[in-house]
Amino acid sequence: MFYKPKNGHGLPHNPFNALIVPRPIAWITTRGADGSENLAPYSFFNGVAYDPPQVMFATTSRKEDRELGKDTIDNINATGVFCVHMVGEELTEAMNISAGGYPRTEDEIATAGLQRVECSTIAASRLPAAPAALECKLTQITRLPGDENLVCFGEVTGIHLRDDCLVDGIFDITLARPLARLGYRDYTVVTDKFALKRPGE
User: Fold this and answer.
1) Residues with Cβ < 8 Å from 126, sequence gap 6 or more?
2) Which residue in 142, 178, 183, 184 is a FRET match for 95, CA 20 to 30 A apart?
């Protein structure tokens, strides 16, 4: 089949998200200017540069009580920092709990029953249970076409790797077992890998 998104797809559910998979999940902690804490997952997320290391994530919906639509992006705009966590398989339920549409006063870290520690390079909480965490400082927030579409870019200022995921100096993704987003309500877990050499290597 072929369809133009502006004309609709005619299917029971929008297939767009199911075509860009698997997507890594950015499980982001932020702190508001008032000291309040927030935790939320975002699956429009990726790394965008090596030197200096930089990441991006996008928000696509709005809460009426926040100027930029979501607690996460509003907090980042106010404080200039955020921490991105990898979601290990064992944290699936906690991640799902943190995805709820809570009021801005809700501390999702506490609601999900997670331990927190202070980040090393930024003023935000970090989740030590996560296989990896990227401490980031805001570089820019960009508005995309559409009513509620924003992209946030950040430079990574500190990286935490859980020691049990390191084998002979390599971060072993099969030990981290990260959760990834598929389409619809579907997820997957990275459980195996293979290597390829590029032509000429």
Assistant:
1) 29, 83, 85, 116, 117, 118, 119, 133, 135, 160
2) 142
Strands 81-85 and 117-118: unpaired
95-146 pLDDT tens trace: 999 999 898 889 999 999 999 999 999 999 999 999 999 999 999 999 999 9
Using the CB atoms, write b or e for 74-92: b if 16+ within 10 Å.
Answer: bbbbbbebbbbbbbbeebe
User: Tokens in use for 153?
Assistant: 């870019």
> How far is Cα 103 from Cα 63, in angstroms, rounded to an integer?
9
Q: How far is CA 33 from the centre of its chain?
A: 21
CA distance 160 to 171: 11
